Amino acid sequence: MENKRNEATINRPEGDRVLDAPYVFINIPDFIRQLKSEEAWQKNDRNGITVFKSGRVTMVLTCLHARAIMHDVLVDGIFTIQVLEGVIRVRTPDGEVDMQANQVITFHQLVDHSIEAMMDSVLLFTNNSSEVHDELDHVL
User: Which CATH superfamily hosts domain 4-139?
Assistant: First the structure.
């Protein structure tokens, strides 16, 4: 297996990191500190970083400011939202659910939903697709 790396960018000059390898260690507290120290967190209602990406699985750590809303999230794969910090409200066609730290919700393919941060929150999104694609890159 060839290791897959993310290259540094203007916004993340130290952004070179392993995204896929025989194993990938993800230090979530370090990534949260990084996200909250970046200019994007100061200027926008959210900031996120891809922490793992293979041909079928993508994991994105996202920090949301209170009242940030992600409208009409639609992912072509099994999609989970894990709340690491804070409180969010998830709206689905069947209603809404409030979630807090240590709770997870899972969606099957193409279930439309929205996410609203009720307070500053940290989420871990995981998309497990049966096909190779970059869905989360378009959502976030």
Answer: Jelly Rolls (2.60.120.10)
